[in-house]
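Worked problem 6 (solution included).
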Amino acid sequence: MIEILWESSLPRPYDPQAVKDFCEEAADVCGLQPKQEISLVFTTDEQIARLNGEYRNKAEPTDVLSFAFSEAEDWPADQNEGLLGEVFISTQMIGENAAYFQVDEEEELKRLIVHGFLHVLGHDHQTNNEEEPMLRKQEEILKQLAHLNLKNLEQGE
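Solution. The predicted structure is:
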């Protein structure tokens, strides 16, 4: 199960039910088990920079932060139940990343969600090289989920 939270000051440009549906299917494809949960929090650059500084000693905004609640020796995650972790996504970074990578914002949002889920489920990468096993898995999952639309409400889709 996925719990989705929006910082109260943030606009919600995507259909909340479509985002929820995407997250549930993405979590399933990523390997989340029926009795497991992940919280997804949409936040601001300021909030994610604070978290990034506190937990990673990098006092700057980032696009996605994942916090797995299990210790390394508790993995694999498929043996755990309950809340496995939290994923924070900066809504401001979605647009910046989309422009940088020359993709639309919906595609970038999907990528950040899957990326965060994979981290909570115990996957990791050392670089951002597309040949990294986790990043290859991320792209394979995104291809499987390409049929899902988040219905951007601002663009009337």
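Discussion: The radius of gyration is 15 Å.
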